[in-house]
Amino acid sequence: MEVYREEFLGEFRFVEYRPFRLEKPAYAVVALPDAGLVGVIGAWHIVKSLGLEEVGGIDSYSFLPPVIVVSNKEIKLPVRIFAKDNLLLIYSEFMLPQAGMVQLSRVLLNYVERKGVEYVILMSGIPIQNRFEVEKLRTYYITTSPKASELLKDIEAIPFENGYLVGPYALLLKESVKSRLDSIMLLTESFLEFPDPEASARNIEVFSKITGKSIDVKDLLEQAEVIRIRARDTMKNVVRNLAQMRKEYEYTPPLHI
């Protein structure tokens, strides 16, 4: 693993394997394990479809497991950074403990902001109890600014008006507001405890319209069953951690709206 540049932000080590620069307008996608692995599955499909290059990674001796990723015979860090043209994508299959996620959300957004990112896109699922019965999945969105909301004009997505969000993306949204970043959260109806490639495909369709990037989801849908089998062990670990974060509260409407 060649290191071009590295820096420590809190308990996290950010490594870049080579220099890179983002074109304008620059978007960052953050994909972390959450309901249905919607963001993780979708992000990997984006990487493959658009030919993003792996340009860096993130590690932490305090909060990440003692693990490395071997990709094409090369050693990579557990949280992976990809980039191409005007897109930066940060991807992890590992679920951090809550204390680690609090710190990572802060330093991660600081990093992408310094890279010149104008919009942060968070892609995830929102669990619904009747998911087995739903064929046409709806996508909701939350934005942190009027500027970010402009990108959703004339796009088939529904404003998320009332409810709770629980988990890593809730922390990222909090930090986005605090840092005044223009962020968009895409939430597609999904399973909670099962990998949901169909929800990922729907999320990607909305992402494509926001960014103007053409991404074919046909292959993702055709490989849905294979993806479910490959991702089931990852999903088991994620579900345990989400339970500790009280993810079930997303089913509960707030008392006052």
Give me the CATH superfamily: PAC-like subunit
Low-confidence sequence ranges:
251-257
The strand count comes to: 12
Please report which band the strand proportion falls in: under 5%, 5-15%, 15-25%, 25-35%, 35-45% or over 45%. 15-25%
Principal-axes geometry comes out as: globular
Rounded mean pLDDT score: 89
Describe the structure.
The protein has one domain: PAC-like subunit (Rossmann fold, 3-Layer(aba) Sandwich), CATH 3.40.50. Helix 1 (38-50) packs across helix 5 (197-211) and helix 2 packs across helix 4 (168-179). The longest helix is centred in the last third of the chain and has 21 residues, at 224-244. Helix content is 34%, strand content 25%. Strands 1-2-4-7-8-3-9-12-10-11 form a 10-stranded mixed sheet, sandwiched between helices. It is globular and about 50 Å long. The chain has helices at residues 38-50, 98-114, 146-150, 168-179, 197-211, 218-222, 224-244; strands spanning 5-9, 12-16, 27-31, 53-59, 69-71, 74-76, 79-84, 87-91, 119-127, 139-143, 158-159, 182-190. Mean pLDDT is 89; it is low at 251-257. It has 257 residues and is an alpha/beta fold. The chain has 7 helices and 12 strands.
List the helices and strands and how they pair.
Elements: E1 5-9, E2 12-16, E3 27-31, H1 38-50, E4 53-59, E5 69-71, E6 74-76, E7 79-84, E8 87-91, H2 98-114, E9 119-127, E10 139-143, H3 146-150, E11 158-159, H4 168-179, E12 182-190, H5 197-211, H6 218-222, H7 224-244
Parallel strand pairs: 3-8, 3-9, 9-12, 10-11
Antiparallel strand pairs: 1-2, 2-4, 4-7, 5-6, 7-8, 10-12
Helix pairs in contact: 1-5, 2-4
